[in-house]
Amino acid sequence: MPTFFRHLLAALLALTIALPVLAAEPNVGAGKAAATLKNRIVIQVNEDDAKKWIAVLANIRNIQADLGAKNVSIAVVAISYGLGMLTAESLAANDVQDALATGVEFIACGNSMNAQKVAKEDLVDGVTITKAGYVEIMKRQQQGWTYLRP
Predict the structure, then answer these.
(1) Are residues 68 and 133 located together in one domain of the fold?
(2) φ and ψ of 72, to 5 deg
(3) Can you list the pairs that 54-58 forms with residues at least 24 positions away whose Cβ atoms lie under 8 Å?
(4) What is the pLDDT of residues 42-78, one digit of tens each?
(5) How many domains does one find in the chain?
(6) Residues 108, 61 within the same domain
(7) Residue 46 has what DSSP assignment?
(8) Quick check: is 3 in a domain?
(9) CA-CA distances (angstroms) from residue 147 to 45, 83, 143, 144?
(10) CATH code assigned at 49
């Protein structure tokens, strides 16, 4: 049997085996499967503005109230001067702690921490650190997270 036909036969056999598996995958855009997907939102904060921090935290509470806290994953990435939002002495510190208790992730940019000489101990307990905040946001967007920058 010529090589071309052997390759064609092998491809057809592989397709025959794969079709039932592919058919079993849920259609993400349809019906029940779409309803069970978890909403994911990544929020960028990069400003030294306490009013904006409080507004972001209020928006998080509104999102959780509307969708249900168990139905949405929210990550706040603080970059540059937004890092102040996550410090233990910030005006938003208590609200950040409350949001952490509901499952919201707060992520500090390590590069910004180094530039501003902010230590992990200076942050609200429970805040995580990523090397580069913008890379964290990019990776999450690639994973299907919705990006918000208030």
Answers:
(1) yes
(2) -145, 135
(3) 54/91, 54/92, 54/95, 55/150, 56/85, 56/150, 57/92, 57/95, 57/96, 57/99
(4) 999 999 999 999 999 999 999 999 999 999 999 999 9
(5) 2
(6) yes
(7) -
(8) yes
(9) 11, 18, 11, 9
(10) 3.40.1260.10
State how far the alpha carbon of 131 is from the alpha carbons of 49, 76, 77, 107, 135, in Å: 23, 15, 11, 10, 8
- Could you give the CA distance from residue 148 to residue 63 in angstroms, rounded to a whole number? 12
Q: What is the DSSP string of 62-129?
A: HHHHHH-GGGEEEEEEE-GGGGGGGBTTSTTHHHHHHHHHTT-EEEEEHHHHHHHT--GGGBPTT-EE
pTM: 0.75
Q: Which two tokens stand for residue 74?
A: 């929210």
Q: Is residue 33 one of the residues assigned to a domain?
A: no
Residue span of the structural domain in which 7 resides = 1-27
Q: Which residue has the higher pLDDT, 28 or 130?
A: 130
Q: Which of 28, 19, 10, 81 is nearest to 50 (CA)?
A: 81
Label residue 38 by pLDDT band (50, 70, 90): confident
Q: Is 13 in the same domain as 49?
A: no
